[in-house]
Amino acid sequence: MPTTSVFAPAKINLSLHVIGQRTDGYHLLDSLVAFAPVGDMVSFAPGRGLSLRVSGPEAAGVPVDRSNLVLRAAELAGGSDLAFHLHKALPAASGIGGGSSDAAAVLRGLGAALDPEALTRLGADIAMCLTPHSQRVQGIGEHCARVQLPPLPALLVNPRIEVATPAIFKALSQKTNAPMPAQLPQFNEARACIDWLATQRNDLQAPAIAQAPQIGALLDVLAALPGCHLARMSGSGATCFALFSTQSDLQSAEAKLRATHPQCWIASGVLGDQTELARPSACH
Ligand SMILES: C[C@@](CO)(OP(=O)(O)O)[C@H](O)COP(=O)(O)OP(=O)(O)OC[C@H]1O[C@@H](n2ccc(N)nc2=O)[C@H](O)[C@@H]1O
Ligand SMILES: Nc1ncnc2c1ncn2[C@@H]1O[C@H](COP(=O)(O)OP(=O)(O)O)[C@@H](O)[C@H]1O
């Protein structure tokens, strides 16, 4: 029986501007997104009905019933008689789109072609995860336009605090904030890109810190790491990232942080285009 495996990379919101709100309550975003070579693995093989088994270091608390985005995506794609296995390496509900990336991996694996509106109804982050390359994301997540970014060495750190996405959006006092420039600059190297990113924002960071001050404390620790040029929260939190101009700076900072913060979830890699890594592979 062939098994298909699909890598589901972590999504990082390098910037996240909240620029308005729709009448249905969903917020309009302008976000620059890149993907990390760190993620979950979704595998499936022929089975009886739709089933799901979840394992891996971050499996605790992940739903195994029909509410799991793996099964919801499979249903939406019309999949049947498939046994799924989800190896969970990304902390759930942490602002790096684990569940959304898992759903996108299922859709890639099944070769399902769904329009961005349908994907967004399943989850606002799923359309952007479908093709995991650097992109500018607008609307509530359905308008995705590819952008070219230099490779960005990054440390990803989750302080092991869960913040609920709807609550963070709700706590945002100003819903209409400035978008990114209509035309994004072109960058030849990481440092210039990071310096420009530092002039942009994550509008959900302040409300997340107000709810969980430990996020602010973690950002201070990351910003103080040698070689760190920018520390910011991803999505609605609580995972934060630190950007470096070289991989050797990244490696030294990672070693230092692992020694001082063993309680955190820590991963590292070069952010950018993960489409090759995320291509479905079949094994017999
Ligand atoms: C904030 C972001 C930024 O990329 O990332 P995460 O923190 O989830 O990683 C996303 O917009 C989250 O996307 P996703 O987690 O898929 O959201 P959904 O399940 O569709 O929605 C969860 C809830 O978030 C709020 N929501 C989500 C997206 C959006 N554009 N406006 C919103 O107001 C709504 O309250 C919604 O009920
Ligand atoms: N495959 C999945 N992996 C993780 N969480 C999932 C999955 N399917 C459903 N969920 C639910 O979706 C919620 C959001 O998870 P996730 O996509 O990881 O976070 P975020 O939207 O913050 O990036 C979690 O609270 C979890 O209960």
What's the helix and strand layout?
Layout: E1 3-21, E2 27-46, E3 50-55, H1 69-76, E4 82-87, H2 98-110, H3 116-122, H4 126-130, E5 135-139, E6 143-146, E7 152-158, H5 165-171, H6 190-197, H7 205-211, H8 213-223, E8 228-233, E9 240-244, H9 247-260, E10 265-271, E11 281-283
Helix pairs in contact: 1-2, 7-8
Bound molecules: 4-diphosphocytidyl-2-C-methyl-D-erythritol 2-phosphate (SUD) and adenosine-5'-diphosphate.
Walk me through the structure.
Helix 1 packs parallel to helix 2 and helix 7 crosses helix 8 (213-223). The mean pLDDT is 97. The chain has 9 helices and 11 strands. A hairpin with a 5-residue loop joins strand 1 (3-21) and strand 2. It folds into 2 domains: 3-148, 2-Layer Sandwich (Ribosomal Protein S5, domain 2); 152-271, Alpha-Beta Plaits, CATH 3.30.70. The chain is globular and about 50 Å long. The protein has helices at 69-76, 98-110, 116-122, 126-130, 165-171, 190-197, 205-211, 213-223, 247-260, and strands spanning 3-21, 27-46, 50-55, 82-87, 135-139, 143-146, 152-158, 228-233, 240-244, 265-271, 281-283. The strands form 2 sheets. Strands 1, 2, 3, 4, 5, 6 and 11 form a 7-stranded mixed sheet that branches. The chain has a 4-stranded antiparallel sheet with strand order 8-9-7-10, sandwiched between helices. With 284 residues, the chain is of the alpha+beta class. Bound molecules: 4-diphosphocytidyl-2-C-methyl-D-erythritol 2-phosphate and adenosine-5'-diphosphate (ADP). Keywords: ATP-binding, Isoprene biosynthesis, Kinase, Nucleotide-binding, Transferase. It comes from Thioclava arctica. ATP binds at residues 91-101.
